[in-house]
Amino acid sequence: MTRLVNKVAIITGSGAGIGKEIARSYAKEGAKVVIADFNEEALNATVAELTAEGFEAFGVKVNVAVEEDVNRMVDDAIAHFSKVDILVNNAGVGDQMQAAANVQDATWSRVIDINLTGVMRAMRKVIPHFIENGGGTIVNMASISGLTGGRGGLAYTAVKHAVVGMTKNVASQYGPQGIRCNTIAPAQIATNFAANMQDMDQFGLEVATRGVNLMPKVGTVEEVSNIAIFLASDESSLINGVALAADAGWSAY
Ligand SMILES: NC(=O)c1ccc[n+]([C@@H]2O[C@H](COP(=O)([O-])OP(=O)(O)OC[C@H]3O[C@@H](n4cnc5c(N)ncnc54)[C@H](O)[C@@H]3O)[C@@H](O)[C@H]2O)c1
């Protein structure tokens, strides 16, 4: 359990779900973790839990859709822990499975602002610091909807494809400066993610879940965090710019 010793990691959306488990698993591997979430109660509870377990955790309230928040998140992390080595862009929301003909502008904007612009701004802010420090690692959270066409709504599918594209762009352009950027593309994982979506588009839901009976299993947050540890650690030093499907082979069919 020493794969991330002396590393400092920011994990967005780490007050719950996948992000919270990534934070805990990174801390277990020796990292100091920055719990970044816009749900203040959840982030405070996560910091308290991890601290009680003997880990070093620092909380920052951030809405990743707000530029000043994202910049402050990185500045506060550096001020608190002196540096940042790992950025996990995990915070994300769903799009009510809205199919193309039913996309609501408000949903489109929200999904773009949080799941796409938030990721861009966090990378834009942290990359100069990584370069100054001689390198760093970014782990983005895409989705199987970033690799396939019909398993989510239009906005969610569009932004997760864009996250895969940004990942490859950053990896190829900043790899020579010691920066690795990879993305995880999970299928369904047991969290509150789906339950957090109200007013589902019934047509979109029906067509997006047509193939769900072929999904071998619903994943756990631990199964995703195992991949996130690997991608953040030196064990994956030869891997840059990949989108790793975490779907038990669902998209291989
Ligand atoms: N659960 C799944 O089935 C699944 C599958 C594929 C991909 N993903 C992706 O994994 C990531 C995490 O999902 P999850 O299942 O853990 O979701 P979740 O809803 O359980 O947790 C998301 C966390 O992100 C926080 N968050 C949401 N919007 C935010 C914002 N604007 N600023 C800061 N924090 C914000 C929430 O407060 C929450 O703590 C998302 O990017 C999601 O798209 C999830």
Automatic annotation (TrEMBL):
Similarity remark: Belongs to the short-chain dehydrogenases/reductases (SDR) family.
The protein, known as: Glucose 1-dehydrogenase
Oxidoreductase recorded as keyword: yes
Top-level class of the enzyme under EC nomenclature: oxidoreductase
GO molecular function, one term: glucose 1-dehydrogenase [NAD(P)+] activity
Pfam families (UniProt xref): adh_short_C2
Keywords: Oxidoreductase
InterPro entries for the chain: NAD(P)-bd_dom_sf, SDR_fam
Domain of life of the native organism: Bacteria
Enzyme Commission number: 1.1.1.47
GO biological process, one term: bile acid metabolic process
Taxonomic lineage: Bacteria, Bacillati, Bacillota, Bacilli, Bacillales
UniProt-listed CDD domains: SDR_c (cd05233)
